[in-house]
């Protein structure tokens, strides 16, 4: 049993020795890494400061652009509302005017129709009557002077209508 105990102590000692060697190796690696990284720390700090400044400026610019965009959108909305209102008024005005034009055209057309009927009644009917009387007188004069009816080859246009 002592031999087992001795073997366990030896294995434990070897494990501790290996652990110490690994720790020394890690210590030396960290030391080397620290020497390699130490010169970069000021550059990294400067870069971080510059990035922080740029980020702050960008945030300020974004806020300004956002505020301007809000103002432009508000102004555009006001203009759109104004144009909608003007369009509504224009449509209402055009409807009223088109109704007025329609009424005027109806009145003009009815007056033209009345005028045509008056002209037809007062001018054309007497002209037709006078034309009929003149044709009758002409036929009577021809019948009295010629004394006979014209033959078919001597028929006039008016006579052809009755043939």
Radius of gyration, rounded?
60 Å
Q: In whole angstroms, how far apart are the ends?
A: 164 Å
**What fraction of the residues are assigned to beta strands by DSSP?**
under 5%
Q: How many individual helices?
A: 3
Describe, in plain words, how this protein is organized in 3D.
There is one protein chain. This protein has about 160 residues and is mainly α. It has 2 domains: about 1-40; about 40-160. The protein contains 3 helices and no strands. It has helices at about 1-35, 40-145, 155-160. The protein is rod-shaped. The mean pLDDT is about 85.
Features of this protein?
163 residues; mainly alpha; 3 helices; rod-shaped
Brief summary of the model shown:
By secondary structure, the protein is mostly helical.
Secondary-structure topology with pairs:
Elements: H1 2-37, H2 40-146, H3 157-162
């Amino acid at each position: 049993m002592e031999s087992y105990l001795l073997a366990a102590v030896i294995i434990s000692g070897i494990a501790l020795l290996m652990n110490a060697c690994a720790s020394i190796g890690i210590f030396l690696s960290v030391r080397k890494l620290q020497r390699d990284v130490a010169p970069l720390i000021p550059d990294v700090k400067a870069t971080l400061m510059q990035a922080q400044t740029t980020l702050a400026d960008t945030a300020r610019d974004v806020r300004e652009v956002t505020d301007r965009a809000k103002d432009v959108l508000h102004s555009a909305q006001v203009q759109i509302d104004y144009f909608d209102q003007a369009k509504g008024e224009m449509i209402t005005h055009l409807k009223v005017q088109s109704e007025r034009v329609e009424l005027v055209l109806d009145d003009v057309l009815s007056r033209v129709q009345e005028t045509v009927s008056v002209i037809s009644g007062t001018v054309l009917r007497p002209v037709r009557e006078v034309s009929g009387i003149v044709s009758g007188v002409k036929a009577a004069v021809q019948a009295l002077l010629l004394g006979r009816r014209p033959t078919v080859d001597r028929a006039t246009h008016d006579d052809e209508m009755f043939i």
